[in-house]
Amino acid sequence: MSRRARFLEVLGIADEWVLRRAPALPEAVEPSAMAGLADPSAEVTAVHEDTASREAAQAAVTLAAVADARVDEAQAEAAPSAWSAQADMDAAAPAPATAEVAVARMPPEPVAADTSTREAVIARLDWAALEQRVCGCNDCQLCDGRTQTVFGVGDRQAEWMLVGEAPGENEDKQGEPFVGQAGKLLDNMLAAVGLARGRNVFIANVLKCRPPGNRNPEPEEVAQCEPYLRRQIALIQPKLIVVLGRFAAQSLLRTTTPIGKLRGTVHSYEGIPVVVTYHPAYLLRTLSDKARAWEDLCLAREVHARAGAKA
Ligand code: URA
């Protein structure tokens, strides 16, 4: 079974989507880098509804719904078009299908002049010291409700870095990001582009502690936690960052632009290319956006290949 077929099967839409056309790859893309993948520019269209897969997806929705309600609401608010039917899909901003992607440059971060500030101290920590500091962090109110911090997991020399929002209930218990239903979908999405958790991928969240009841993170909590993510990125120096969901995208890119507009463009964080896609928890509930997530992954893979990456 091809990677694409496997990916669609995992998403529960194996019987719903067919390629309408499959144009040639853009010249600049190494064919080997795209081997086994659907052409990102290929159009997909729904042809019929598979009741069984809908039911399976619905079961996953129910499981994920409580833990990830905040993501659902946030996405709906920020990108209403993501919630509407097929007609709206056509109206939403399409992902670019070519290697000619606009790089949206973010303003450079102000250099910390005072080397004794909290941020400057964190910015100098090595892995061991950073992990220890996060583990014992009491710098915001989230420390009161957590079981443990969730530092991040994976290959510390990874070329791919994935950034989500915050630990949920399962992650808080297990100390690892994306271990619930959304995490299973994420693992399958990674597998579809030849990646695996911990092998050339590092997964982290903007927040290292679970917000109680999975509520939206407060700006102050983000402000306190952001230096940790910033340092993780600086230590890993990934060739690509894939941001999962509205909250992480808006935090990392310091913008209020809705996710529907952020996806499809290659952004930049400290000079590292950033591709934005939907949060896996949202995808569990919104079948109509899964094809778009696939487009995003294809774009990410293309950007990664262009960055002169090894794998
Ligand atoms: N959602 C996230 O954004 N991160 C996790 O680790 C789990 C769920």
Short description:
With 311 residues, this protein is an alpha/beta fold. It has helices spanning 3-11, 31-34, 51-67, 69-78, 86-91, 118-122, 127-135, 169-174, 181-192, 219-236, 246-253, 259-262, 280-285, 290-306, and strands at residues 17-21, 43-46, 103-104, 153-154, 160-164, 201-205, 240-244, 266-269, 272-277. Strand 8 and strand 9 form a beta hairpin.
What do you see in this structure?
This protein is of the alpha/beta class. It has 2 domains: 3-75; 116-310, Uracil-DNA glycosylase-like domain (Uracil-DNA Glycosylase, subunit E). The chain has 14 helices and 9 strands. The protein has a 7-stranded mixed β-sheet with strand order 3-8-9-7-5-6-4, sandwiched between helices. α1 packs antiparallel against α9 (181-192). Bound molecules: uracil. The site of uracil has 10 residues, from loops.
> Judging by the overall fold, what is the CATH architecture of the largest domain?
3-Layer(aba) Sandwich
What form results from the Cα inertia axes? Answer: globular
Main sheet strand line-up: 3-8-9-7-5-6-4
How far the N terminus sits from the C terminus, by CA atoms, comes to 21 Å
Strand content: 5-15%
Structural classification: alpha/beta
CATH top level class name of the largest domain: Alpha Beta
- Per CATH, the superfamily of the largest domain is Uracil-DNA glycosylase-like domain
The ordered string of helix (H) and strand (E) elements is HEHEHHHEHHEEHHEHEHHEEHH
What radius of gyration results from the CA coordinates? 19 Å
